[in-house]
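LAB NOTEBOOK - FOLDING QUEUE
OPERATOR: T.R.
BATCH SIZE: 2
PURPOSE: Compare the predicted structure-token outputs for two unrelated chains run back to back under identical settings.
PRIORITY: normal
REVIEWER: second-year student, initials M.K.

ITEM 1
FIELD SEQUENCE / FIELD STRUCTURE:
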Amino acid sequence: MSTILAPKPAPRFNASMTVVLSNGKASYVAEVKNVSNTGLCIRSKQEFPVGTQLHLVFGMPPELPRLSTEGIVRWSEREKGFGVEFTYISPRDHDTLLNFVISQRRERQA
């Protein structure tokens, strides 16, 4: 008998930055709680139902240049925020975002 193992969740890195979210109708500024290789957790006053397609724009010059991604809401809990899975992010932007978050983590540990 074989055992099917669920994939391990991607490591999450706490983040301190804002993101502009757009669902095609309006734009909202929100706080990013954490980032992983596959997506991020966001806290926002605006709620989005599971399945909502979002356009996300990051940027905290000069440390983080303007980055643009696409994602889909995979989970949403009123008190915790909501999780967005990246559906498109260029490899360069992905590396830049993760390097920024990791550098923030190192600064907090120093």
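ITEM 2
FIELD SEQUENCE / FIELD STRUCTURE:
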Amino acid sequence: MTGDWLRFRLGTGADRTQQVAVHHVPAGDAAADGEAWVEISSPVGRADTIDLPRLLELAGDSLVGGAAIVDGVALLKHTLPLSELSVREEFERPLTLLVARADELEHELTRSDRY
């Protein structure tokens, strides 16, 4: 854990794991619109080594999260307001879905398990 960030790995089955980061966005942040939020993100691969149009197509089929590039890494990310947060329904389920989908995309686009 570093500051407002928590990073860890989750098992996704078939001897694969997936890195995930949870970031607290405080209410005072200009982008937070006066509320505290939590951002979940999971990497898919280095942006310069994967087919980005294909990533966007595949991410469009995801129930949660959207594709983004941060510091050269393509990832899926999903943001939730903390004020309405029910841990099981509004955090755990999106976290699990996002991590599983990011791992599927990583496997399809890179044929590796780097993240």
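REVIEWER COMMENT (ITEM 2): Residues 37 and 81 are 4 Å apart (CA to CA).
FOLLOW-UP: none requested
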